[in-house]
Amino acid sequence: MLSEFFIFGLVMTSAITGGECEVTEVFAQEGSEAFLSCKCDPSSPNPASVVWTKENKGTVWRKTQSGLQFWGTSWLHKKTPRVQCPHYRFERRDYSLQINSVKLEDAGLFSCRVGTADGVIKHQVMLRIIQVSISPSAPMWDSTFSISCDVTPPAEGATVQWTLNNISSIEAIKTLQVAPTKSLVSGRASARLEGNWTCVVGYKGEVGRASVTLAMKGIIQPPKDDTKVYAALGSAATLPCVFSPGLIPSSSAWEKLESGFPLPASFSQPAPSSQPSVD
């Protein structure tokens, strides 16, 4: 059992009858907030004690019969607790645990023990952490990239799907199921693949989501190869070449390729004798 850190006290009153707690499975994205459910029958008495523990890690949070609260030292960040049970919910017999800034090591099995005059009610919650990451973090235009989605601990039989900007049908990408709950998406960086990628995990009727934003680096103007610029003979012409924000090239150069791009059909070609030399 890990040592505990005393924060402050809160006096609770007692009540009359007992009740049963619900059981839930919880998903959370790494770095977000997680809520572990521990709800009792509204008619149950106020508890004499509430204890949250994590398998093989000891006490997370507990409230004694006197109303004093304690936190496990591993759940404190600079003496500020990362976990809490909001007191305003106690009247509704809701003793759910809130975890702030979820870490990968927070994943695992939690137990909520509610002690009442009628006995002890135990409620278990499995917290699964979803990680999404892009490699490389900001790919260059037309280079290959991959986005991975991993669930800890793994959930056998879970489904994993991807959406891009809330659209589930994504063409020209390759999806690889590396493990039961680890999925990998790969493709070539292009404008239509930029945006918010979301990994959607379904398991035992519960759905978890984790998102990451794909932003690419490269030349953003012109928006595509073979962009055509027209200018009147003798006038000034500007050929666009704009880099994405944050991209500082070590060197840059202009190169003129072979001519031969045809004019649109609406243009009439002048007679060969009157054609000017090509710049």
UniProtKB/TrEMBL annotation:
GO terms for biological process: interleukin-15-mediated signaling pathway; positive regulation of ERK1 and ERK2 cascade; T cell activation. GO terms for molecular function: MHC class II protein binding; protein tyrosine kinase binding. One of its GO terms (cellular component) is membrane raft. Residues 28-128, 143-215 form the Ig-like domain. SUPFAM superfamilies: Immunoglobulin. It comes from the Eukaryota. Keywords: Signal. Residues 1-21 form the signal peptide. Pfam families: V-set (PF07686). PANTHER family: MICROFIBRIL-ASSOCIATED GLYCOPROTEIN 3 (PTHR11422:SF12), T-CELL SURFACE GLYCOPROTEIN CD4 (PTHR11422). This is Ig-like domain-containing protein. The lineage of its organism: Eukaryota, Metazoa, Chordata, Craniata, Vertebrata.
